């Protein structure tokens, strides 16, 4: 699986596990993602996929590197897709 595929899967999993916000974003904690069995089977390197998604401005979270246990309560936000301008 390439990075783009993994980021796409990450978006699906955050939507599945997270709570939708009024602005259309989804929020989930790192601990919930990391400890989910389905995520564990999909992502070989969840932290690397999160960093790639953050670099592409698809998700946002505090800090650079997330570690199990230490950062379980860090909130990850899947940003809403950009609004398409109607011409």
UniProtKB/TrEMBL annotation:
Q: Which residues form the Costars domain?
A: 1-79
**Which top-rank group of organisms is this from?**
Eukaryota
Give the species this sequence originates from.
Answer: Eleusine coracana subsp. coracana
Protein name in the entry: Costars family protein
Similarity remark: Belongs to the costars family.
A Pfam entry, by short name: Costars
Would you kindly state one Gene Ontology biological process term found in this protein's UniProt entry? regulation of actin filament-based process
